[in-house]
Input
Amino acid sequence: MTSSAQLPNDASPATRPTPRVLAFYLPQFHPIPENDVFWGTGHTEWTYVVQAKPRFPAHYQPRIPADLGFYDLRLPEVRQAQADLAKEYGIHGFCYYHYWFKGRRLLERPFDEVLESGRPDFPFCLCWANHSWNWRRGDKERQGRLIAQAYSEEDDREHIRWLLDVFQDERYIKVNGRPLFLIYRVFDMPDPLRTLTMWKEEAHKRGMAKPYICKADSHGNFGDPREYGCDAAAEFWPHHLETLITRAKGSEDFYRVNKIQEYRDVVAALLKRPAPPWRRFPCVLPDRDNTPRAEYGGEDATAHIFRGSTPELYERWLEGAIQKTLSNPPEEQLVFINAWNEWSEGSYLEPDVKYGRAYLEATRRALHAAGAEVPTGVATGNGRAKESIPDPSPNEKLYRNLLDKYALLQHQFMELLSAEEHSPLMQKTDQRIEELQRENRQLKRQHRKLEHSPRDVERLTRWMQQLDAGISALLKSQRWKLGNALGEASQRVLLKPRVPTPQDHLVKILGEFRAWLKYSNQDSGGEGERTRQSIK
Output
């Protein structure tokens, strides 16, 4: 059982410290021999990212990094830049994934260098990713296991002794003086209660505080962490969100192949999720789209995709998650973000070419809105502090909400557009346009060698009349009206002046053709009209 200090509603707002936002950190952005053997020389997380392709209209893939580029975590400059960026926007620390397989560690180099060098000077903790490394590539027959997780009492003792050395680093994140340590799949351990009890005894022998052990609620295991000997739990979305959120449905194949969920629904459901009778820290995702990883399993592999994520919706979720922790004791006001740099899962705070730093800015605003202290600026290389990002005014918040709604409308319009583009009518129209283009090219070739003849004029007139009819039908179609309405709405929201549209250009060109046709009829004394009727 927990002590009374672990139960809710025992903190005074007057003594409340700044809530601590911790971001999970993936170290697989450098090559290692094991990945070289199984995936090919030079394999890193970027290998997945750059090969991703869109699976449906308006699908945001591939995702390209901005400020930090395609970095290599073996470089200390990269690790420093990441920490500086996180600190600037209010992230308290990184939660590094830690891979331990019976005394063997993988992807260890970035963290080892952080530990040995003392740089960057940025708080951190560890999450033991204690799952076996399985692989699947191309088809179901080509799959296997890179390295299996195994447990023993001897290994448990060796593991905690290594961890106790790490816990002594002054940057290591603590809860009430106890080093914070997460376990990804505590329920996979043969006897977690025995192991964690032994770990605490080993800490006592060293004269150190026993670790504050947090069970990740992964793979649908949302049970009481105290049953495993843990002190608390942490949400680990997106695992088993299907128990709370229904999948988006549609007639297209991509709905059948992929698991698509609306980000707006995810936010609403998790903000309403009731608190359990034990300590559980919330977890927030900026986005989710594991298409890059799924494609390594074959073209028909299922991708898990959130649709409609925006910085504004993420900000709303994070602010609500922070508010949930404010009734905890000061040291237990923790919120996890999944993740800082899970690029192949589509879950990252690092800047990309589409949103820039928008999700980082939303993080800072959410902290401020929840009453937390946020950075006012950080020193740059020239010793001067950067200007802080101003907090949004009520009008700016209204503007962001409008943009949020516009983004949703855009997604819905793209779905309608996709459906119409694949309709028989549109396919027939595309085919006719190609035929007319071929005729036009033929006319141009003839006109290079011959003077214009009445027959040439007749053929050109016929072609223009057919084009006139086709374009007129397009301008009257539901598809074109939807596009125009959406474009005009966005211009009004963004307060942009009206500029000529493709429709304006088409109408102008057709107007000139109709004027020429009318003039030619009048000039020929009715002969042109007879010609036009015969063409029809």
Notes: Residues 1-14, 138-142, 378-389, 527-536 have pLDDT under 50 and may be disordered. The first strand starts at residue 20 and ends at 25. The longest helix spans residues 394-421. Residues 415-535 form one domain.
